[in-house]
């Protein structure tokens, strides 16, 4: 999968430009900074974004240099996601399939990130501080360091472990768990010596434009622990997240009650 990302970004400009668009509703979106016109500053990063589920795209709908591995990798991550959601459901004291039955594991979006070498890395970031807008993120990285997580108000490097994946709790899982799980704030640094690539798979509702409402799970709220968030759809949440951009603040605050 990492090689597939490198193949795409290693193409000449004309080949890559065939996929360029700022229409975030396109099946495949290739651009730099999805929030270019809303965030406080631009990041040092190019991204290919693609909705991969619940209905897998046909190979001809994807960049030819990486279409096969994008489909195969998605199928494997979907299996992993179901297992993770079952474990998370049990951790909440719910039946194993609770989050799966809520369709948290149905939809998946894939983001191929490329962070070029930067001549002045101290002046920018690859990705600004943020938490993800989904239920769960499965992240694959190469060996180049740069990912950091905010822990006890300190930025901590996430070490590269060969063969391992990084898993983040996202905002929507924090919302439905009524703060039992907390989304992970993170950022990415850049460096002057080598480019960095990563693949982020976002789990969220299978149809982003679904009218299905998400609210704190009934079994997790009580008179002593009332709902902390109002109901929202995936589309409303992600639209708010995208319009706000990566400005360093949490998108969840807009939905608190």
Automatic annotation (TrEMBL):
Gene3D superfamilies: B-lactam Antibiotic, Isopenicillin N Synthase, Chain
Pfam entry (one): 2OG-FeII_Oxy
Keywords: Iron, Metal-binding, Oxidoreductase, Vitamin C
Transmembrane segments: none
SUPFAM superfamilies hit by this protein: Clavaminate synthase-like
Source domain of life: Eukaryota
Gene Ontology terms, MF aspect: dioxygenase activity; L-ascorbic acid binding; metal ion binding
Domain Fe2OG dioxygenase span(s) in chain numbering: 106-206
Keyword presence, Cell inner membrane: no
InterPro entries: IPNS-like_FE2OG_OXY (IPR044861), IPNS-like_sf (IPR027443), Oxoglu/Fe-dep_dioxygenase_dom (IPR005123)
Family of the protein in this entry: Belongs to the iron/ascorbate-dependent oxidoreductase family.
Protein name: 1-aminocyclopropane-1-carboxylate oxidase 3-like
Species for this entry: Salvia divinorum
Lineage: Eukaryota, Viridiplantae, Streptophyta, Embryophyta, Tracheophyta
């Amino acid at each position: 999968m990492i090689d597939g990302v490198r193949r795409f970004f290693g193409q000449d400009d004309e080949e890559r430009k065939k996929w360029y668009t700022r229409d975030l509703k396109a099946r495949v979106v290739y651009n730099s900074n999805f929030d270019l016109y809303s965030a406080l500053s631009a990041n040092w990063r190019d991204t290919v974004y693609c909705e991969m589920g619940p209905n897998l795209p046909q190979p001809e709908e994807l960049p030819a240099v990486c279409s096969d591995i994008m489909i195969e990798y998605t199928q494997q991550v979907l299996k992993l996601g179901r297992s993770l959601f079952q474990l998370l459901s049990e951790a909440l004291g719910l039946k194993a399939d609770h989050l799966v039955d809520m369709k948290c594991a149905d939809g998946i979006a894939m983001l191929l990130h490329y962070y070029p070498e930067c001549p002045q890395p101290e002046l920018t970031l690859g990705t600004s501080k943020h938490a993800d807008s989904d239920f769960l993120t499965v992240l694959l990285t190469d060996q180049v360091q740069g990912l950091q997580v905010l822990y006890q108000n300190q930025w901590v490097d996430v070490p590269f472990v060969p063969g391992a994946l990084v898993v983040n709790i996202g905002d929507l899982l924090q919302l439905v768990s009524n703060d039992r799980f907390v989304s992970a704030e993170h950022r990415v640094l850049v460096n002057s010596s080598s480019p960095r690539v990563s693949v982020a798979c976002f789990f969220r509702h299978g149809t982003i434009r679904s009218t299905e409402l998400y609210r704190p799970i009934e079994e997790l709220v009580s008179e002593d622990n009332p709902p902390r968030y109002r109901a929202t759809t995936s589309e409303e949440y992600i639209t708010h997240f995208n319009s706000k951009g990566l400005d360093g603040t949490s998108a969840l605050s807009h939905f608190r009650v």
